[in-house]
């Protein structure tokens, strides 16, 4: 049950949502897409090579298509985006082999490599994690797939943003993302309130796939599917991470933006490496590896499931567990992003 103080905050968040979304159609069309399912597909791999990932991704995508009774085929826009996580550096980033496996499965479904793009927050972190070649190569491709870095500022538009009364100057967050601010000159209070949204995922794709990594988080509890799709997917968002009250509201509200949800098809995560203490800054001493890949259209359920896995390893190593009532999950569930109760999860073993 959500405490009464949280219910008040949630009511404010829901009311604020209608007033805080700007852009063509965002303010006058708040119809929500269908609610995500409670299905989570799990594939146990024999290793972490490309062949193993390819088998896992293809089997799970096929089952996902069967469950939805709809194939992932080229549509009107004819493009697909892959949102990777690289903000913790190469030790804790979306595996390159997983990304290539997803690309190959999309090619089987009618897309070309030129129709797919990879999106990440920081050009330097994308380069460190293997998604961009060295600067000397003068290339912005990963295996012939175009890579877009949000910190270039080229993929935001002034008419599409999330508005919050929390100014950028109030943020004192302890992790340095080493990314260039696409809007470095905060000229007035109005601009400092805005977090610009990733236009390619809103208006250029048939759908996009979220490819997060998991760690604990000092403010939100879990850094995973919800975070990778929201705060690590827009500008000027580190300002939220100084407050346990404002950060989960921002995640839920950004995730509920209709244009983002309409194209947010599914989430795929590898457990090749995830971190249970000290995240999101990478620390190899607190990482574990399991030979599984998970797929779901429910990011809230995935985050709840990974909270349980993270807690298992925290308990084994003498650390306090993450709370059973994380606000990021409660608020996101209330705004329709998915069920957080793993007791109702439909876990489907893909092999």
Order of helices and strands: HEEHEHEHEEEHEHEEEHHHEEEEHHE
Average pLDDT: 84
**Number of discrete domains:** 1
The total strand number stands at 16
Major β-sheet strand ordering: 5-6-4-3-9-12-15-2-16
Number of helices: 11
Low-confidence stretches: 1-32, 167-187
Shape: globular
Strand content: 15-25%
End-to-end C-alpha gap: 36 Å
Biggest beta-sheet profile: 9 strands, mixed
What structural category do the secondary elements indicate? alpha/beta
Radius of gyration: 19 Å
- Helix % is 25-40%
Write the layout of secondary structure elements.
Layout: H1 4-20, E1 21-22, E2 39-44, H2 50-68, E3 80-84, H3 96-108, E4 116-120, H4 123-128, E5 141-142, E6 145-149, E7 161-163, H5 189-192, E8 194-196, H6 199-203, E9 207-211, E10 215-217, E11 221-223, H7 225-229, H8 246-255, H9 258-263, E12 264-270, E13 274-275, E14 287-288, E15 292-296, H10 299-316, H11 327-334, E16 346-349
Helix pairs in contact: 2-3, 8-11
């Amino acid at each position: 049950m959500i405490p009464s103080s949280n219910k008040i905050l949630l009511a404010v968040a829901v009311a604020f949502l209608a007033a805080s979304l700007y852009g063509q159609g965002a303010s006058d069309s708040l119809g929500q897409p269908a609610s995500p399912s409670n299905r989570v597909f799990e594939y146990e791999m024999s290793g972490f090579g490309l062949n193993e990932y390819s088998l896992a991704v293809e089997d799970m995508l096929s089952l996902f298509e069967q469950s939805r009774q709809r194939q992932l085929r080229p549509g009107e826009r004819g493009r697909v985006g892959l949102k990777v996580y690289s903000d913790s550096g190469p030790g804790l980033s979306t595996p390159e082999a997983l990304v290539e496996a997803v690309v190959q499965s999309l090619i089987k479904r009618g897309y070309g490599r030129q129709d797919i793009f990879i999106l990440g927050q920081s050009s330097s972190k994308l380069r460190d994690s293997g998604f961009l070649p060295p600067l000397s190569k003068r290339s912005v491709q990963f295996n012939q797939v175009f890579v877009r870095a949000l910190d270039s500022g080229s993929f935001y538009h002034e008419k599409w943003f999330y508005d919050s009364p929390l100014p950028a100057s109030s943020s004192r967050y302890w992790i340095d993302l080493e990314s260039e601010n696409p809007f470095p000159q905060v000229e007035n209070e109005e601009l400092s309130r805005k977090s610009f949204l990733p236009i390619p995922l809103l208006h250029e794709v048939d759908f996009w796939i979220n490819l997060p990594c998991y760690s604990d988080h000092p403010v939100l509890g879990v850094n995973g599917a919800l975070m990778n799709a929201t705060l690590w997917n827009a500008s000027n968002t580190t300002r939220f991470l100084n407050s346990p009250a404002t950060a989960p509201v921002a995640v839920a509200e950004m995730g509920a933006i209709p244009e983002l949800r309409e194209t947010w098809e599914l989430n795929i995560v590898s457990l090749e490496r995830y971190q249970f203490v000290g995240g999101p800054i990478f620390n190899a001493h607190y990482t574990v590896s399991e030979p599984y890949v998970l797929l779901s259209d429910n990011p809230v359920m995935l985050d709840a499931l990974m909270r349980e896995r993270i807690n298992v390893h925290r308990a084994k190593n003498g650390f306090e567990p993450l709370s059973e009532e994380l606000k990021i999950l409660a608020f996101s569930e209330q705004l329709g992003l998915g069920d957080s109760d793993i007791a109702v999860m439909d876990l489907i073993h893909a092999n």
